[in-house]
């Protein structure tokens, strides 16, 4: 299996995750020097779900990002399109509801979740803007979106060090610990190609979410974006990405007037 190209053909991304599934969690912990646990706790706190609520954890992979909700008695649906990842997850946590589904065409009814979250998955989706619109469609009015994704370090010297670490060290380390090191070359490249914090916030606005705010973790290596679905439902029909340019113009105007959206 070769690495998924940055054009992100869905079948390549799917096959790549099927391939890395058995060692996915171990390699993640090693490569992020244990930081993932702290990041995950911050995501769960941002979702802030209560027992009785229904949470969609999209691109859930092996369900590591879904477990804290299940442990807290919250009904969580772990959805992913890699059967390999889902199988590893189901073996480990048979109590969690694992559902096969594509983020750009979700197999769920409109307005069916109190909160929708996606951790380290949106970057891999072929059409992330469409996925944001789909997440809006399946979330209840007033419901929450929480996106955790690798981002851009804010301190310029640190950004340089980080970029060097990513582009040079990560593939070399991955060669020693991962079964498919080329997947981690893709990881490094896809992080570099991903929009920065304000860029992702503009996409979230453009999809029809409101009050988007983000928090930088580990100096911006990761950003957690949070937004709400308008109480009146989705502007422009929610799943209609055709409305995006109009929303994008509004989002840019918003950004021009709000120098920093970081409030978490
Ligand atoms: C890096 S893993 C993250 C897994 C989990 N959320 C976590 O935090 O450990 C990214 C996941 O995104 C999934 N993915 C990528 N594109 C997808 C799509 N279009 N629909 C559903 N899942 C997708 C992959 O199969 C993979 O399991």
UniProtKB/TrEMBL annotation:
Enzyme class, first EC level, given as a word: transferase
The enzyme's E.C. designation: 2.1.1.163
UniProt entry keywords in alphabetical sequence: Menaquinone biosynthesis, Methyltransferase, S-adenosyl-L-methionine, Transferase
CDD domains: AdoMet_MTases
UniProt pathway annotation: Quinol/quinone metabolism; menaquinone biosynthesis; menaquinol from 1,4-dihydroxy-2-naphthoate: step 2/2
Pfam families xrefs: Ubie_methyltran (PF01209)
Function as written in the Swiss-Prot or TrEMBL entry: Methyltransferase required for the conversion of demethylmenaquinol (DMKH2) to menaquinol (MKH2).
PANTHER family assigned: 2-METHOXY-6-POLYPRENYL-1,4-BENZOQUINOL METHYLASE, MITOCHONDRIAL, METHYLTRANSFERASE
Name of this chain's protein: Demethylmenaquinone methyltransferase
Organism this protein belongs to: Arthrobacter halodurans
């Amino acid at each position: 299996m070769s690495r998924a190209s940055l054009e992100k053909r869905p079948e390549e991304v799917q096959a790549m995750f099927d391939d890395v599934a058995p060692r996915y969690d171990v390699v993640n912990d090693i490569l992020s020097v244990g930081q993932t646990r702290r990041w995950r706790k911050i995501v769960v706190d941002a979702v802030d779900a209560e027992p009785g609520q229904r949470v969609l954890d999209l691109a859930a992979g092996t369900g590591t990002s879904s477990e804290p909700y299940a442990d807290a008695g919250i009904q969580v649906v772990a959805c992913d399109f890699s059967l390999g990842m889902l199988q590893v997850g189901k073996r480990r946590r048979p109590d969690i509801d694992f559902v096969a589904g594509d983020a750009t065409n979700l197999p769920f009814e409109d307005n069916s979740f109190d909160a929708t979250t996606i951790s380290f998955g949106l970057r891999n989706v072929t059409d992330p803007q469409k996925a944001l619109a789909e997440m809006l469609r399946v979330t209840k009015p007033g419901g929450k979106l929480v996106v955790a994704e690798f981002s851009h370090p804010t301190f310029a010297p640190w950004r340089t060090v980080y970029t060097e670490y990513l582009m040079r060290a990560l593939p070399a380390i991955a060669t020693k610990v991962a079964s498919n090191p080329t997947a981690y070359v893709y990881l490094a490249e896809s992080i570099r190609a991903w929009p920065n914090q304000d860029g992702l916030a503009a996409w979230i606005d453009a999809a029809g979410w409101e009050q988007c705010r983000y928090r930088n973790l580990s100096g911006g290596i990761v950003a957690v974006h949070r937004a709400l679905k308008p109480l009146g439902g989705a502007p422009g029909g929610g799943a209609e990405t055709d409305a995006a340019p109009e929303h994008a113009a509004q989002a840019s105007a918003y950004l021009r007037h709000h120098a920093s959206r970081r409030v978490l």
